Amino acid sequence: MNIRHISGSSGPVNKRPSSKRPNWKTYQSRLKKTQARKRSAGKLFKGCILFIFLAVAVYGITGKPLDSAVQNPNSLSQAPELALYDDIPVYDIIVKNDIYAMLDKEQLNNIKEKSFDIKFDGRKFHIDTTIDNKLQNFILNIMRHEYARYIGIVAINPENGKILSLAGYDRKNPEQNPCIENIFPAASIFKIITAAAVIEKYGFTSESSIAYKGGKHTLYKYQLKKQPQSHVQTITLKDSFAQSVNPVFGKLGVHYLGKTDLKVYAEAFGFNQSFSFEIPVKPSVIYISEQPFHLAEIASGFNRTTAISPLHGAVITSAITSETGKIIEPSLIDRITDKSGRVLYQGSASTIQQAVTPGTARIVKTLMKETILTGTCRKEFQGYEKNPVLSRLNIGGKTGSINSRKHEGQRFDWFVGFASEKNGDKQVVLSIIVVHENYIGIKAMQYAKMIFEEYYKNYFTDKLTALNLKALNEK
Question: Taking the model in full, what pTM does it have?
Answer without folding.
Answer: 0.81
